[in-house]
Amino acid sequence: MSSTKRSRRFGAAVAGAVAATLVSAAVLAAHDFWLVPNALTFAAGGSVEVLGQSGSSFPKSGGVTQPARVAEARIVGRTSDQRITDFSVSGKSLKLTHKPVAAGQYVVGVSLVTVTAKTTPAALQRYIALEGAPELAARYEQEGKYPKVDSVSRITAKYAKTIVEVGSNGARAFDKVLGQALEIVALDDPAHTHVGGTMRVRLLFHGKPVSNAHLRAGWGSPAAVHDTTAGPVMPSRPDQVIVTDADGVAKVAVSEAGLWNVRTVYGAAMQGMPEHWEVFFSTMVFSVSAGMGGDNSDVEAMAPPIVTDSADVAAVVAKFHASLAAGDSSAALALLADDVTILESGGVETKTQYRTGHINGDMSFAKAVPSVRTVTGVRVRGDAAWVTSSSVTQGESNGRQINSTGAELVVLTRDGGAWKIRAVHWSSRARRAAP
């Protein structure tokens, strides 16, 4: 295979080992702040207790967020809006206590103190990727949005929300907008959301819907809220990656009763101040009971629970690219099904043809030319899944300057409990020179 053909393939196909590591690390190691109700429901006339949990293992807390870090705390009902001022520390948790004015549903929101730091554009991009938004970081790099200066002011803040029930049959408040700078708003009532259904949320940045934003959704056992062990809590379902539509709306597939979190990181340059960047964190927690609710149609209510393996599927594709970039042909080939089909530049290859021919050239090219790959979609339907991604490849190979953009489609099936790659389709084209 010629170097020209390899450059076209890997403009779309191969992310470097660093890029693959960033995607994996961002999903697993982001340090989030959640609000978790200390009970699934609270008695009318009593106090509400909500725990501020900090760490990377929902819903337990890995460390205390001190009361001094709270900039604002509110509890908002359908017709009420009160500040929370009773803060304390309980074990590794920040505890908020408040007595609502009446029975009903309430949204509790906390904004942590804003932090400003000087950084560089490269460090800003890495920060966004590692803190939970690798897709956004890569897209901004591809679109040339990072400032061309030596120093950038990075302004960070964390915003958290949860929905609590006080008494029964009270006024609903799940869709209340609190006005947080980055806010996830529930569009469906979690009290009426059933296992096997969906929960719609909208992402707002300074009050405006954000389209094409990647959110993560994860499940947690209520029994793990007070877990103080050092190890992580392993969920029975891997995290989902969901993407907002043109109206900023995304859907969480509710596959299990218990606690659910939706979280994201989003940032942008301040309007008229390109050297000042806001990078905000937002989380929302809601609970789903084991009973069947009434927000979905009767047909959907009879559907079996949805099993979402999007994180596992994305990890297989990332491992395939990382193995090629590392020159590990055995690891890369092990992820391909025996009947895999590889489509590129009008050609069709089998696994045997790929093993005895192109894989060596592909690995050499991946090592020589860095590439940034951005996952644009992960879809799972039963035992079948497909992953779409885009990429930007820039560098030098055999004396040629490479500057291309590409697209990739990977189809996978579950075989004996493990995901295998059944088909790969690569396409690419040269990038236009900057005007």
Write the layout of secondary structure elements.
Elements: H1 3-12, H2 17-29, E1 32-37, E2 48-55, E3 70-76, E4 81-83, E5 86-90, E6 93-98, E7 104-112, E8 115-119, H3 121-130, H4 134-143, E9 152-166, E10 182-186, E11 198-205, E12 208-209, E13 214-220, E14 240-243, E15 249-253, E16 258-270, E17 273-288, H5 298-301, H6 310-325, H7 329-334, E18 336-344, E19 347-349, H8 351-368, E20 371-381, E21 384-397, E22 400-415, E23 418-430
Parallel strand pairs: 9-17, 18-23
Antiparallel strand pairs: 1-2, 2-6, 3-4, 3-7, 5-6, 7-9, 8-9, 10-11, 11-12, 11-15, 13-14, 13-16, 16-17, 18-19, 20-21, 21-22, 22-23
Helix pairs in contact: 1-8, 2-6, 3-4
User: Oligomerization state of this entry?
Assistant: single chain
Structural class: alpha+beta
The tally of structural domains comes to 2
- Uncertain runs with pLDDT below 50, 5 residues or more? 1-29, 292-308
Please describe the structure with a list of short key phrases separated by commas or semicolons.
435 residues, alpha+beta, Nuclear Transport Factor 2, Chain: A, 2 domains, nine-stranded mixed β-sheet, six-stranded mixed β-sheet, 8 helices, 23 strands, 44% strand, disordered N terminus
